[in-house]
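User: Predict the full complex structure for these chains.
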Amino acid sequence: MSHLERIVDAVAGRIRGKAQVIELSVLTMIAGGHLLIEDIPGVGKSTLARSLAQVIGGSFARVQFTSDLLPGDLVGVNVWRAKQERFEFRRGPLFANVVLADEVNRAPPRTQSALLEAMAEQTVSLDGETHPLPSPFIVLATQNPEEHHGTYPLPESQRDRFMLRVSMGYADAEIETALLQDPKTRDDAPLPAVLPSVEALADMQRAAEAVFVHLDLARYAQAVVQATREAPSIRLGVSTRGALAWIAAARARAFMRGREAILPEDLQELAVSALAHRILPSQSSAGDHGRVADELVRDILARVPLPT
Amino acid sequence: MARARKGRDPRPEDGATPSPAGRRKLSWMRRWLSARGRSIEITKAGFVFISLTLAVGFAAINSGSNLLHVIFGVQLGVIVASGMLSERMVTRTGARRVVTSPLFAGAPGALRVDTHNRSERGVLYSVSIEDDDRFEGYGSMGPVFTLALGPDEQQSQHTSVTLPRRGRHRLPPAVAVTRFPFGLFVKRKEIDDAAEVLVYPRIRPIPGIGRGSAVLGEGESAGKIARAGEFYGLDEWRRGHELRRVHWPATARRGKLVVCDFEGEGDHTWILELGSGRAGEPAYEAAIEDLASRAVSALREGGFAVGLRVAGELVLPAASGAAQERRLLDLLATVGFEDPRDPTESDATQRRVA
Amino acid sequence: MSLLRPRGLRELRDLLSVLQIVIAVMAVALGGGASNLALLGAFILGVLAFVRPLPAETSRGAQRAWTLLVFIALVSSLVRAFARAEFLDAGIDFLLLLVVQRFFNRQRTREHLQLLMLGSMLMTIASAINADLNYPLLLTLYLPTVFLALIVNHLLGEAERLGARVEHALIRRGTQDLPLLYRAVLQVAAVAGVGALLVFVLFPRFGVGAFLHGSLSRGATSGFGHEVQLGGFGRIKTDATVVMRLEPQSPVPVSDRLTWHLRGNTLDRYEAGRWFQSEEVDAMRVSSQVRLMPMPGAYAYQVFADDRVPVAVRANDGQIVAQPFPGEGSARPTLRVLVQLEDIGTDRLFAASQPLAVRLAPRSPIEGQNRVYGDFERQLVVPRKQPGPIQYEFVSRIDRPSARTLAQLGDPLPGPEFSPYLRRAKSLSPEVGELARSITANAKTRIAKVQAVHEYLQANYSYSLDQPQSDRVAAGADPLEGFLFDTHEGHCEYFATAMAVLLREVGVPTRNVNGFYGAHYNDIGEFYVVRQADAHSWVEVYFEAYGWVTFDPTPPDGRTAGDEAPFWPGLANMVEAIRNAYLSYIVGFDLNTQFSVLEKVGVERRGMSIQVDWRRLGAVALGLLLLGAAIRWLRRRSRHVVRAPHIEIYEKLLARLAKAGVKRRPEESAQALARRLASEGHPAAEELAAFARRYESLRYAATAPSPAALAELTKLSTAVRPGGAKTPGPGH
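Assistant: Here is the predicted structure of the three-chain assembly.
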């Protein structure tokens, strides 16, 4: 049983009935990306993030984003140490392997920017000083889908920084019933680490990067991305960064399944998660952003032919 | 086949009012030639050529002259080749139209037309993408012409498109037309790019909008709001900041003074008022156009924060800026339609079946 | 001039419009349909139209002037056509005027279209009047030109139709897409060519003939007419233009050169260096009983008859035989030759002396309107001959009574009706008579006199094409005297005239005959060719019961003087052969040929009904089908991309699945297809899933599959049975 399977199993033991989300989050981790979870509160996002951190033996931090959250609350502040007569950098919650940024859309744009900059650079800079973030560094950000007053939905350019977007959804009726009947199934004890060290994850990331992508599949991916740019129903198509993220995710998926090359299904299965949050439908004013985008991506997927 | 659309009576006082959308009456020849899936039409030159061919054929039969038969054969061959080539041209044509600018009713917007040669071997010659002249009232686009496209090549051309009414619409019906090679016959193929576009109400320039201007018309002005604008974020207190902007919970947490930042907003907030009505009613449409024109002018030039109230209900809180303009126009584009979808949708589907 | 090197589409269109008109006018002119004056005028005005800068729009005044001019031209053309029966000339001149008018106003697509239409009308007219080989050549030039012109004009028309923006883009793009357009021209030309071929071969030649009663003829003009000036032949001795093609229908020994005297016209009166027909002979022609009449037993032939007694008959074996010479055995075999005579502006038909019978073999209804008449001088005349070549067959005897037979006649006194043939020229001095008498002093019989003069001329005179003028002639004497007494050299006309004139001095009836001597064998086309250079002049002498007998006083080397004429004999032969083939197979293609072609594919006409040999027709159809399939296959093969073997295996499997009603969606991967089948409960889903796993792992791997892997894949693919043992029913 490989490390990966054990990671997935361990997390799945904690959050039941969410195999797909677990897989996608592990996959994001291996691909070195960040995950955007778009969902209602209270479906186990924190549990997922914490469990992930525990099984890889890394540190975990949870930040609840609120309208008064300041960038400094995230990255840390320089504190004047009178004794040493110098500023000392006090690390913020971002200095952890797994960061759960809860309800990012509640924080003002400036704070969001700080988070997204840290995600992109894997460093934070304060007063001209750059502080590297731990490696691996994975952000699981959640966003409330209901748009209401006083929230700051992530702008398109920022959403692009997340490798995948998933939605958890409620637990299966059966599992939820079991959960309700016997609250003991909720286990808060920390999970034992599966990996010997956090660095082992970096090895896996390197191995995933080496997964082969056939030219035909690269062409296919390009055609799909191109189609999002040309579809009249889409105002803003997928960027090159988005396409790269898609391929990286597909590589990680293939790696997780023990393959040396990606298959069409890797791309197709991940297309909605990897692409939908990067496009902006033309009918922006009409209703649920996310659902419309999902449908548009599925539409395009059904239209772009795959070579035999 | 002209079908009058309900509630779309042209307003006599406005010359630019679109005519009702529907099928145009065609000549009996066009109708006969395009019946049962045919899509051919004979041009004037084509008629001349056919009569010339018949004359030569008659002369050939009459005289029995071999050379006349040869010429007759060449002419028949030309007719056949014309038909074959033009048929190929339209089947090779793939076209898609993408609107690249906001569309206002009755005003030209930017349109990109991508023409694609779908053949892997043949060249695509002389195809134009233009309005389907069998319909009228759906709007119009400027024609684009492709002289020659190699196998599997694509070409993007820019032109304009005008839609007559606000709302969510399909682009005006277009056809790929070819008269290749000799201009004797016209072949058409409908372009099926089913995308819908949002058409904003017609906008007229309203000069002289400024603070306290009388041009504003109806609506309610909330006057100056003391602390204006929406919450933007928190910042550390600096000398000069009003004390009442201090955010006390944050200050307590951080141990130093923190103030709230607000988004800068116009000095005047102006909530526009739109009565109830149904799309298509001339008075209602005129009111919407008027409202949109004033709102856009106020947002662009007057520096107002503009909001919208429809039938007494505040649907758009006041705000300023380009995003607010878009939100406002989005709303005004679709207001009054029972179904927010395209009111001409049923037309469009029938159009395709026909 | 920008016209010659087109930079933009407009210039190209101008060039093409002019070019196609030039070709069409050439075709008409070469068919003799346009007067030089009209051509010159059209040329000058055309050049003017292109030199002058084209105004953006024709002014109203100019428009009105042109309308008026065209109207006047129309009226005058109508007058010309109906009053003077010059349909063709008037029509062509009018078309030329319209062309010029369009040249001056050629701004828009419409005008160029009209120019193209005018060109096509001229080309159509040319097809009726130009039966020569240059027509198909011009047509092959004309068609691509006109196709390209139409395409370019169409493009500019689209620009005109779609507005300034499109026009601007099109003009700016210029001629850079031309190579692509050439491809389109070739495609159209190919289809048009096939159309032409099909119509040509298969379209029945009805030749209804309505409205064809009018004559296209403008009358024979010059050449073998009613008079010949001494010295005229010298000029054409170097002219290699083909006059006639001969195809012997009866066996003749194959040789490079035939030695027949192909006689055209006879002239009886000589005066001052000029042969012509006297009025007496003309009168005799009317009253003479010698006429052509249908040959008994072979009515297609018209045979010369003297008092209704035909000079030749059809023997029982089908051969046409001549009546024997008096006292000379039985009927003699004859020579039968099919002739294609070019339009050389004469209404005479040529036949080897002595002509016995003739049959017209028209190849078109127009040609079929010709009628032939014969007179007592054995001339064959086609009055009001239609323009263009004419095909006929002549029957002649080329044997002649022997000198011994003729000697038996002695020297009878000719009857009074022969006085025209004995008439002395007033322009000749008595010296000529003295010379004649001195030559024939010892001759007792007529034939002896003839031979004496013949020998005298052969011995003392030499052949030359140059004819230096002697002092005597310069002083006003008859040119013949210069030949006889001063220069002693000249060409065939001098020899023939000298012989005729000298014999008349001694009471022998003679006449001058003009025609062609001999023919050259074309071994490519296997026929004989007569050129202008073979034009010849000789003498006929009357021998009572034997009629007129041919004598040729010209030295043999002079008769064949034109032989070296063609510059490249081989090439000339080839061209001649092609031309002949064109005339007989293309121009001469008719309903009968069509039926014979159809017979070859199994459709035969028996009277009014049509018999079909299905087996043969089926074989032909099958052959054509196979040919088509082969071409298709070849084309597809050339299009076929070489695929990797594993993809091939998958595609074959997909084809099998498709046959069983399972279609892969274009966006579906192999595994997705397998999953879909599994969800649909297809019996082969499991096998397909196994295959798909293996296939995709090979398909998207970094390395090419090994042979073992391929073998395994093949095995997996054969394991998939699309039909399945179980048939998927609704219960699945």
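The longest helix of chain B spans residues 66-92.
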